[in-house]
Amino acid sequence: MIASVLAGLTILVVGDSHLGYPGYLIDTLQDNLLANGAKQVHTVGVCGSTPADWLTATPGTCGGAERIGKSPMVRKETISTTPISQLLATDKPDLVIVVMGDTMGGYGKDVFPKTWAWQQTTGLTKAIAANKTACVWVGPPWGSPGGKYNKTFGRVQQVSSFLATNVAPCEYIDTTKMSKPGEWGSTDGQHLTTTAYKAWGKDISDALVQLPGVKKLKQ
Question: Which domain of life does the protein's organism represent (predicted)?
Answer without folding.
Answer: Bacteria
